[in-house]
Amino acid sequence: MSFEVCKLGSALGAEIKGLDLCQKLDANTIAALHTAWSEHLVLLFRDQPLTPEQQIGFSRYFGELDDHAAIPKFRHANHPEILLVNNREAATNKRLSVGRQWHSDLSTTLRPAKGSLLHAVQLPSVGGDTLFCNMYRAWEGLSPLLQQWLGDRSAVHDMTIARETRLQRTPAELQEIALRNPPVLQPICRAHDTTGRKALYVSEMTTSHIDGLTKEESQPLLEYLYKRSTLHENVYRHVWRRGDSILWDNRCVMHIALADYDASENRSMHRTTLMGNPSGRLASIA
Ligand code: SIN
Prior knowledge:
With 286 residues, the chain is of the alpha+beta class. It has a single domain (4-282), classed as Double-stranded beta-helix (4-Layer Sandwich), CATH 3.60.130. The protein has 7 helices and 16 strands. It has helices spanning 27-40, 52-59, 135-140, 144-151, 163-168, 171-180, 215-229; strands at residues 4-7, 14-17, 42-45, 83-86, 113-122, 130-134, 154-157, 184-187, 189-191, 198-200, 207-210, 235-238, 245-249, 253-257, 268-275, 281-282. The strands form 4 sheets. A 7-stranded mixed beta sheet has the order 1-2-3-13-5-15-4, with helices on one face. Strand 1 and strand 2 (14-17) form a beta hairpin. The longest helix has 15 residues, at 215-229. The chain is globular and about 50 Å long. Bound molecules: succinic acid.
């Protein structure tokens, strides 16, 4: 099956045209998709009204799927491979805001996500956009001396420091999250396991500090790294249409969901998460 690859942004992103994701794909097509993914980091597939089964089936072409055991509250009732990224809690209809700081999925675990595929089920009338930034370029833009200093250091990633988590969870819930997800140390620079290219790996949502520095010492440097990573020229902004699916590479991309829409409207997305290679170690036994 052949398809067209059309660039969406100068730093990252491409649309794949001419594929029906519900059909079984042959080995050559899958290999060509992997190549396009390595080159463009974020792939968009338009007009694909996927059922959960079809999304799971397509996602499996790219690797093993997470069952979202770390966030059981937001799993699809019949398909644990689907994470419900909704702005309302199903049981209570309470408003939720999710993913509102730059991050890379599951960086707070010892098996950070390789990739994620987000499928738009329901969208607000305007807005609800997602931004993606290229973390290869973020690393490559640093001076050799700073690269050298950061290159063999680690940073602590902690799920409980995420702004939305702190705002929306009770102290008891935060304690439970902390017990279930103790902070981990991740390398600040990681070589991509397919391309070998180095990427910066810190994020405002989860990185609490650089190992060996105090939080106060770390913060200005981390802020500088976040600012460099998310410069306009390093970002692709996606304006969603219903039926869009986007596959991104968490090893070299960060993303953020914008609050640029009327919160009384519904936004509902289905995410599958591809398991990555083991990375990092528990901060408590470092
Ligand atoms: C996510 O953070 O995984 C979801 C991003 C979005 O809802 O746009």
